[in-house]
Amino acid sequence: MTDVSAEEYNNNMARTNNNKIDGKDLEKALERQNKNFEKMLEQQANVILVAVDERMSRSEEKIKKEIKSEINTLANTLDKFLKRLTDFDDEFQIIKARVGRIEAVLQEKFGLVIN
């Protein structure tokens, strides 16, 4: 991933070995190396971010499924409870009507009034 060709590298090494490298060449080489490091760090950061994003997406989907399951369980429990409550209310209305008829018969036949 370096921009330095093999020939440039060899030339730079030869100059370094001969202690004839000047400051400008060194500065340019360091600049290129810094740019390469920056590119590599940026690419590495992007790879890490993509991996984290994918994992978070999977976790998010798992959590959504669990929440939906819990909501369905709660809805089923509430449906059963409301059915029992409705059944109880229906039975209460039937018993209330029967008691009303019994009161009417007692009042009619025996003159008995129940409050």
Largest sheet: none
Q: Low-confidence stretches at least 5 residues in length (pLDDT < 50)?
A: none
Portion in beta strands: under 5%
- Return the average pLDDT rounded to an integer: 89
Number of alpha- plus pi-helical segments:
2
Q: Provide the number of structural domains.
A: 1
Number of strands: 0
Radius of gyration of CA atoms, rounded to a whole number: 43 Å
Secondary-structure content class: mainly alpha
Q: Report the principal-axis shape.
A: rod-shaped
- Order of helix and strand elements from N to C terminus: HH
Describe the structure.
With 115 residues, this protein is mostly helical. The chain has one domain (6-110). The chain has helices at 6-17, 23-110. It is rod-shaped.
List the helices and strands and how they pair.
Elements: H1 6-17, H2 23-110
Which labels suit this protein?
single chain, 115 residues, mainly alpha, rod-shaped, coiled coil
Short note summarizing the structure:
Residues 8-20 have a biased composition (Polar residues). The protein has 115 residues and is mainly α.
